[in-house]
Amino acid sequence: MIGLLIVAHGTLGESLIECATYVLGGRPAKLLPLDIHDCSNTTEIVAVARAQLAELDTGDGVLVMADIYGATPCNMLCSLIEPGRIELVAGVNLPMLLKVLTYRHEPLPTLIERALQGGRDGTFHVTHCHG
């Protein structure tokens, strides 16, 4: 099973996990948040991230999902990328998280594509509602 780490500003990571837990009826295994409240101590944050990645990696790798490309939480994790083992995608949202939780048994390169697809395909311009 591919481990999942959400790195984001504030409590977004834990909030996304809470939403996924509600939708799925239980908290998924090997899924952790790294909620960033203060970006001043990057050395400490990277050390925490490194420990979380070790905890999450059961041999199939870890997909890190960041909230905003180019923002501090994403930038701090860039140094931990190991192609094929620790991969990073940015722009995490609930549809992306649900997609990767559904397909995390697939190989890491495939899961990255599923994550990007879920993030894109989960957004809509709503002009009317059914019901």
From TrEMBL:
Keywords: Transferase. It comes from the Bacteria. It holds the Pfam family EIIA-man. GO terms for biological process: phosphoenolpyruvate-dependent sugar phosphotransferase system. Gene3D superfamilies: Phosphotransferase system, mannose-type IIA component (3.40.50.510). GO terms for molecular function: transferase activity. Residues 1-123 form the PTS EIIA type-4 domain. GO terms for cellular component: membrane. InterPro entries: Bacterial_PTS_sugar_comp, PTS_EIIA_man-typ, PTS_EIIA_man-typ_sf. PANTHER family: PTS PERMEASE-RELATED-RELATED, PTS SYSTEM MANNOSE-SPECIFIC EIIAB COMPONENT-RELATED. This is PTS system ascorbate-specific IIA component. It comes from Sulfuritortus calidifontis.
